[in-house]
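Dear support,

I submitted the protein below through the web form. The confirmation email said the job was done, but the results page showed an empty box. After a refresh the structure appeared. I'm attaching both so you can tell me whether what I see now is the final result or a partial one.
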Amino acid sequence: MATVGFVGLGDMGSRMVPHLLRSDHRVVVFDVVRDRIDAMTALGAVAADSPAAAARDTDVVISTVMSDDIPVAHLGQDGILAGMRPGAALAVLSTTTPDMLQSVASKMPAGAHLVDAPLIGGVRYASEAALTVLLAGSDDAMALAEPILRTFGDVVRVGPLGSGVAYKLITNVVVMAAEAGLREALDLADILGGSYQTTLDLLARGPMAAVVKRALDRDNPRPLRDSALDFDVLVAAGGEDNLSISAAGRRRLWAAAEAASPPPVFVDLTSRITALPRFRGE
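What the results page shows now:
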């Protein structure tokens, strides 16, 4: 049994912690939203009052915070690095940029280890422990983190530190272009007087089948805004001038994410809630 710190209990993290508990690990959790901590302590986790406290005296610390939250969660006075002990490993599972990961690497305490281990798969995959973990780092660091990360699904070693973040962004180019493309296909259906249902049925017969299935999955409650934020990370890493398709897709996804109140979730990508403004009321 290991002691695992876990920082970030959002849609993904809240589905991952229970797998660690069922594997008889001691899990110390932190999130900026107290109700999320309470939900995990009800299952047997131990509450921490800061990221540093979640990291203290743990064997492996897992971080699943959004990219913009990495500086405070990791590098702040009460951040993860402030609580890590020599010999422990930090696994950054966030979708982030190589520069952001390097900012963490440059501040790691002496004797502590760092891996980047971003995830392929959404909330359903997290619930079912069927994620793909893109693990990168030194051999010693990966050896410490991998047994814990295998709790969440398949672990694929992809190279030295930074390779996980890089390959996550590379795969996201295709995934996120498909998401924006699905919304634009429905935009064209609106323009030409087509049916959403017929459009989705036809797309589900071809290579877009997996994209349509995921978009229609009501058990995947991811806020659409989080996908748009991931698009920001992708374009920041590659440069808008270099990734013209991604830059255009980001603009469309942000328009969809800001189309309604309450904020749309991922399944709303297939409804008129996120249509072009002149078609939303139809």
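Response: this is the final, complete result; the empty box was a page-load delay. Residues 86 and 226 are 34 Å apart (CA to CA).
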